[in-house]
């Protein structure tokens, strides 16, 4: 049939053999069927198009759409229903598939109409389902939804106000109408809420936009602070970093400072923060978003407290090297990327995946690790006489400088930042004798520090962690009048230079 030809008339007597007994769903009654046909003419486009009927049942509405000349694809989870629908639609430009209406098996196809009757309310997250369905529409396509609320003692269904609110940001136009008062549609008078909502997609794809969120990695040595979500509607019961959305007019740094104050009571200064990673994330059934991960040291801005007990059931410290499994997958992926020295990560979840971390994913997150730079330092290895004793001073200093625990083996361990890592090893091949920086060989390691205040704070704390200040009579200009630096020495004579920018 071409678009200029009239559709073949429906043999209703033959079709009636496969209608359900209930007139609400099967349209066995001629009056009910005519009433729905009138509504479908109003809701569907005037010219034939591709219609996706989700939760199609035995195909009653699909048959009405086909009778108006549209090409129909039906989807239902029940194989028995699908067989009846195929029988009913035999000879029409139609196909019926077995599958989940929430995630229809249409392999990237787009439609002029997505139709669902008394289906959306059955999903645990109707808003997420709506977003997925809108993604199946062509520009200018229509989403036709028939829903309602049934019962008074324990009502079931979906209020019109909730559906309209969820659909408004997804479409260009919305039409809604009450259906409860039309007894012809139901074969009897009904007193509960029944309605239809038609959303029309924009005529051209909308310019892509994303939510921007921020995450705070608050570090205490090799531990990180996590918050257990509660009562938020997203990831409740799972651990997550203190985090939130960037608000209008905020930059990302101002946003993470605000979120830290609101969630864990910290009064951070911009100088306390370091950008660690950027993650583009798509959660299951969600639109993409971009997350900025910042780090700060424990003690900056005060002591963390649970400032939002209605949204967080507890704050806990966890070792970075042994993160718990009961975490939001997005959060854990960002932490894993940061620990691996990756500055950018694409964490793209399919609709069938879980919000919670589920171990190694079949499809690994795509990362853009720092480019390999010819001539750049890969790692530095220090042989120490006592690994257990050296771990404390060096772990504190490297952690304070932004390195994170990287590897551990029987007689060694390492800390990594970006693509470079530092190794401490008590090698079985170590020869007797101590380190002497005045002999040929390594004299010292030198590290950047962001500013003078940061350097001064490290020098003040260093003695408590096994470091002593060298050249104290010339500090902080032991390297020259134009250089602000500190020289520290550990108990075995290894020297480190800290240089303030």
TrEMBL record:
Q: Which InterPro entries match?
A: Glyas_Bleomycin-R_OHBP_Dase (IPR029068), Methyltransf_11 (IPR013216), NUDIX_hydrolase-like_dom_sf (IPR015797), NUDIX_hydrolase_CS (IPR020084), NUDIX_hydrolase_dom (IPR000086), SAM-dependent_MTases_sf (IPR029063), VOC_core (IPR037523)
Q: What is this protein called?
A: Methyltransferase type 11
Query: CDD domains of this UniProt entry?
Result: AdoMet_MTases (cd02440), NUDIX_Hydrolase (cd04683)
Record keywords: Methyltransferase included? Answer: yes
One molecular function GO term is: hydrolase activity
Identify the residues that the record assigns to the VOC domain, covering every copy.
Answer: 376-501
Transmembrane residue ranges: none
Keywords noted in UniProt? Hydrolase, Methyltransferase, S-adenosyl-L-methionine, Transferase
Q: Which residue ranges does the record assign to the Nudix hydrolase domain?
A: 193-340
Q: Could you tell me which Pfam families the record lists for this protein?
A: Glyoxalase_4, Methyltransf_11, NUDIX
Q: Which GO terms describe its biological process?
A: methylation
Entry superkingdom = Bacteria
């Amino acid at each position: 049939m071409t678009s200029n030809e009239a559709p073949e008339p429906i043999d209703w007597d033959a079709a009636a053999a496969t209608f359900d007994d209930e007139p609400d769903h099967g349209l066995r009654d001629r009056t009910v069927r005519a009433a729905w046909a009138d509504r479908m003419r109003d809701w569907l486009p005037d010219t034939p198009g591709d219609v996706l009927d989700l939760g199609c049942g035995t195909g009653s509405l699909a048959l009405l759409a086909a009778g108006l000349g549209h090409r129909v694809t039906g989807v239902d989870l029940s194989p028995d229903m699908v067989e009846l629908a195929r029988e009913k639609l035999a000879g029409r430009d139609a196909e019926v598939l077995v599958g989940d209406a929430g995630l229809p098996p249409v392999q990237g196809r787009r439609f002029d109409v997505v139709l669902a009757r008394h289906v959306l309310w059955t999903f645990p997250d109707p808003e997420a389902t709506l977003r997925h369905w809108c993604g199946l529409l062509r520009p200018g396509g229509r989403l036709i939804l028939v829903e309602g609320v049934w019962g008074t003692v324990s009502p079931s269904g979906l209020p019109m106000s909730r559906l309209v609110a969820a659909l408004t940001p997804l479409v260009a136009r919305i039409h809604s109408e009450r259906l409860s008062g039309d007894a012809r549609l139901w074969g009897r008078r009904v007193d509960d809420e029944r309605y239809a909502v038609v959303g029309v997609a924009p005529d051209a794809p909308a310019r892509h936009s994303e939510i921007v969120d921020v995450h705070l990695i608050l570090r205490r040595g090799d531990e990180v602070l996590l918050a257990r979500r509660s009562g938020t509607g997203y990831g409740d019961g799972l651990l997550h970093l203190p985090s939130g959305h960037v608000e209008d007019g905020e930059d990302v740094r101002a946003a993470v400072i605000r979120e830290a104050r609101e969630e864990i009571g910290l009064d951070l200064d911009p100088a306390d923060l370091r950008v660690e990673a950027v993650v583009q994330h798509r959660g299951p059934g969600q639109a993409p978003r971009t997350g900025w991960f910042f780090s700060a040291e424990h003690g900056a801005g005060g002591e963390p407290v649970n400032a939002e007990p209605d949204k967080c059931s507890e704050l806990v410290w966890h070792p970075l090297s042994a993160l718990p499994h009961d975490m939001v997958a997005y959060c854990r992926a960002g932490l894993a990327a940061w620990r691996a020295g990756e500055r950018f990560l694409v964490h793209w979840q399919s609709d069938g995946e879980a919000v919670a971390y589920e171990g190694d994913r079949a499809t690994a997150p795509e990362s853009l690790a720092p480019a390999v730079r010819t001539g750049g330092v890969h790692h530095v290895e220090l042989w120490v006489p006592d690994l257990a004793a050296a771990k404390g001073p060096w772990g504190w200093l490297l952690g304070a400088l932004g390195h994170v625990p990287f590897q551990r083996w029987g007689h060694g361990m390492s800390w990594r930042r970006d693509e470079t890592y530092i190794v401490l090893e008590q090698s079985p091949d170590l020869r007797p004798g101590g380190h002497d920086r005045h002999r040929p060989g390594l004299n010292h390691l030198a590290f950047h520090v962001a500013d003078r205040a940061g350097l001064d704070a490290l020098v003040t704390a260093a003695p408590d962690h096994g470091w002593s200040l060298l050249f104290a009579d010339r500090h902080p200009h032991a390297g020259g009048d134009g250089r602000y630096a500190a020289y520290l020495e550990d108990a075995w004579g290894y020297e480190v230079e800290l240089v303030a920018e």
